[in-house]
Amino acid sequence: YIKFLSIVDLCSLLLSIPAGYAEQACTFSTYVAAFYHTHLGWNLVFMLRNISFFTIIWMSYDRLLAIWFNKKFMDVQKTRITISRLTVTCFWVMMSYVPIMYWGEVLNISDLLAPAARSRRDIWVGHPGYNFKPDTVLYRVYEVYFAIFLQILPAVVLLGLSVGLIIGLIKTHKPLEKKNLNAHMIKRKKRQYFSTVALLLINLTYVLCSVPYLILMIDHVTPPSECYGTAEKEIWIGSMNSLMVVWSAFNVTFFIFLNKDYMKEAKSVVTLGMRPNRESFRSNRSSTRTSRVSIDLSPESKAKRQSLSSNNSRRPSPTFPTSPDFAMGMKCKKESVTFAPTTKTLITCAYVDDATYIV
Question: Where does the record place the region Disordered (predicted)?
């Protein structure tokens, strides 16, 4: 998800700037400007923003599973499932925006102007797709579909997931030092807590920046034959465009400070794929975060450890944690290994950190 958002958010931010602050008028002096404003422009921005929005919903859903249903969370953390989710989401959102892009129309109105108002250059006018024959049944059906499935229903789902995350944080947030956890578990739980809070802040930012724009779309829709013409509406539209740019910029900035992997992917997008050596990065990460512990559970070894512990309090005998936090945060397997002439029991435990299994 982080790699995917690094591309979508950056593209949305870069496209928001020309779409928000370019020529916003009824008429255009070039066909290219009229075509971009009519068929692409905000359509591309909103399409990318919807894809980013649904990706954040998937992230919120997985974070909710991590808090409330840890076993189910570990089952869905697979590359195949992630790719399938993102592929279906992108295809559905893109196909939903095809009609509004196709219905847009660019016309040359130079011949329709009065002779005194004509100039040497052609005058073009763009009719965006969201103003396509609003009285037809096809447009009304599309309008209801677009409003429910791409705006209202996702917002309700995100609100429900956010409430579940807040309740989960309140329920599970206790002083970590009092939970009998080791240093690694405390650090991991603090990182998970911070990730959940950051995700809630992103959800809140979406609501604050998108709701005013939805109000603009509902109450201030301009008919195709009418120019804006009033300073009040121009200021309102400019403010809403700025909010959408702020939302994209906030996502990019927040993810950069939140996750080092996101920062690396963002740099890769900006530098056109010039990434550092991944093999060295993986080897360094594995060398610093990988550990394997073998515990001999035979009666003779247990008695020996207890005697060593009684003689030296600074060397306590190894214990196998059985707290609920340990069970939720780790997966362990037990196997018998033969070391002639004896057979020992080897316990291998894996810390589960989101989608990363560390053995």
Answer: 279-326
- Contact criterion met (CB below 8 Å) for 243 and 213: yes
CA separation for the pair 104, 139 (Å, rounded): 13
| Sign (positive or negative) of CA dihedral 50, 255, 58, 265 | positive
Phi–psi pair at 330, nearest 5 degrees? -140, 155
Instruction: Read off the pLDDT band of 217 (50, 70, 90).
Output: low
Alpha helices (H) in the chain, listed in sequence order: 2-21, 31-39, 42-68, 70-76, 79-102, 137-147, 153-172, 183-219, 231-258, 260-270, 278-289, 299-311, 324-329
Q: Which two tokens stand for residue 2?
A: 């982080």
| DSSP symbols for 274-285 | ----HHHHHHHH
Q: Measured between alpha carbons, how far is 15 from 75 in angstroms, rounded to an integer?
A: 37
> Which tens digits make up the pLDDT trace of 272-300?
544 445 444 444 444 444 444 455 556 66
Q: Are the C-beta atoms of 138 and 45 separated by less than 8 Å?
A: no
Cα separation, 66 vs 207, whole angstroms? 24
Q: How far apart are CA 42 and CA 130, in angstroms?
A: 11
In CATH, what class is 2-270? mainly alpha
- State yes or no: cis peptide before 341, omega within 30 of 0: yes
Amino acid at 182: N
pTM: 0.63
- List the single range of 186-190, 202-206, 229-233, 247-251 with lowest mean pLDDT: 229-233
The residues, any chain, with a CB within 8 Å of residue 262's CB and separated by 6 or more, are 2, 5, 6, 255, 256
Domain borders along the chain are 2-270, 290-358
